[in-house]
Amino acid sequence: MHDRMQSRAGRPRDRGLDAALLAAAAQLVVERGYGALTLQAVADEAATSRPALYRRFSDRAELVMALLADRYGLQPGAQDLGGLEAEMLAIQHHQMELFNDPVVRMAVPGLLEDLSRSQDLARRFHEQFLHPRRVSTASILDRAVERGEIGAGTDPEWICDLITGPMLMRALIPTLGPIDEELVQLTVHSALDAVGYRRSQ
Q1: What's the pLDDT at 1?
Q2: What are phi and psi of 55, to 5 degrees?
């Protein structure tokens, strides 16, 4: 995504301005909410021009995608920790941090509304943010198969839904309960059961 934005600009990137724009967006989301996040407001907060912002982002959803990728990356499951359970716990601790982030909490409802209104936006969000992260999560299962911890044939898309769904629901509806260590353990154990993993005695 950032490479594409650089080609749009047609000039060397100012990394300091990139960081300032993302910081401004995060601050505005927390202070005013996603609905008040406009490119003009971000440009004003970062003390830059609207054209400079538009050379990088076409709309607020793309700006939020860049903010999320900057904070949480696109490869949460890339690190080999030597075992499926350890890697599932690591990715769920990562997701616990993500979904407890005030920026994410404030942005997700409005972002989901935007995605529901635009198929093009939903496609871009999937291609640029969701898909790379889900592929990275799937790599955890591939390594587990190679180690002989689980059999082949598990649907990685279902496992991604299984571990992310409860956290997303609690982020959207906080009265369902906290996103905490207990939820991490419950979701990991559910995923391990779903893939047929048996812990060593």
Answers
A1: 47
A2: -70, -15
Segment 134-163 mean pLDDT: 94
pTM: 0.86
In angstroms, the CA 156 to CA 1 distance is 24
Q: Nearest Cα to 174, choosing from 127, 73, 125, 106?
A: 106
Residue ranges of the chain assigned to CATH 1.10.10.60: 2-63
Residues 6+ apart with CB under 8 A from 108: 168, 171, 172
Domain 2-63 CATH assignment equals 1.20.120.450: no
Whether 125 and 115 have beta carbons less than 8 Å apart is answered as: yes
Could you give the residue ranges of the DSSP H alpha helices within 73-197?
A: 84-100, 102-117, 119-125, 131-147, 156-172, 181-194
Q: Where in the chain is the domain with CATH 1.10.357.10?
A: 73-194
CATH no., domain 73-194: 1.10.357.10
Contact residues for 9 (Cβ-Cβ < 8 A; gap 6+):
55, 56
